[in-house]
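Figure-free illustration: sequence to structure, shown twice.
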Amino acid sequence: MALIKWEPLREIEDLFGHSLAWPLGRAQSMLGLGEWNPRVDISESNGSYIIKADVPGIAKEDLKVTLDSGVLTIQGERKQEKEEENKRFHRIERFYGSFSRSFSLPEDADAAGLKATAKEGQLVVNVPRKAVAPSADALQVPIE
């Protein structure tokens, strides 16, 4: 069972639909700076695992996908737009800066066949599954 840190202030922010300037370091989130993580969907089909990450506003050149010791890492950076002089912001909700997400791949993942594509604000990583060789002989399992 995994423990999840409860953040009651986050629930209040979610209720109102925006960040609040709390004196506990939450003001940084109002500026849209600092760490952020794209939302990810992980699915499985007969022949592969598929990881889809929402990365709107990030150029393909600013994304990086690596595999090391069975851990797939997605990294990237959303660069802040250049500010114009005499421009007043009324609200900033988009996050800028670097992110990094890591996922442990299952043992049947075929690292040699990894493919990644970025299109229309979505990064898709396709991880093929190794074919399981069927057993030539039938195996009887003892019942205890």
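We now fold a second protein in the same way, so the two outputs can be compared directly.
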Amino acid sequence: MFTSWKLGRIAGIDVFVHPTFLLLLLLPEVWSGGFVTLFLVASAFGCVLLHEFGHALMARRFGIETEDITLYPIGGVARLRRLPRAPGAELAIALAGPAVNFAIVGVLLLLGAMGLGVLLDDANLRVTAMFLDNLLLVNLGLGLFNLIPAFPMDGGRVLRALLSGFVSRSQATSIAAGLGRALALAFGIAALLVTHNMLHVALAAFIYLASRAEEWQVLEDEQRRRVSSTPPEGMWTAPPGYHWVRAGKDVWQLAPIVVTYQQRPHPRPSSWS
């Protein structure tokens, strides 16, 4: 198991980089454009970090703290201390990340509309202008890619939040995860047979496995909740005149059934002999 390296602490959240991040330095594309391309890659991951802080700070507004943020070669992961169950909260937290990227795109477009590109060209800073154009495209790609309805991308969580208004959380998760695996499989096959890009194949495999892991985790959590919120049955059947009352987490006690005169039902056969 690799130990991530801590970069610092921002807004009360620890930021780490995983050692596999160094694999990016082995890609020929990173060094093909020299320092400019290397700086663009570093800036792109700076935008990824801002994306993750968008999730973290929005989650904080709903009372959910973030354990840490870790950067990987294929993106970043913000580890929330708990997942939001309310569809509205999950929707807001999921959209906060891509919203950061689209905000960066908006700022760069505004600067371009104000004539920044022309000023840079006149100052013989065409390289800087091209860098900003590429950074705009990077953020546009990050925002749109993360909205693909597949776990673990934000689009999968958006889809689950929307479906949770019509079906149970378990069903919504299974639908979103199943769609994510189908898209990952199609993307992986296309990358393997058409583009021959092994990085994209690895990304597709990660999405496929992560969507399955997300589904299992949620289904197990929902099962635990059903068990802990259901009174004991079988040999713990309450005797006549009593019922089980939850006294705490996984703690139940017998309490007498109190029936007022106004609520007294008509006599009917008992289910007990």
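Summary for the second example: The chain has one domain: 5-228.
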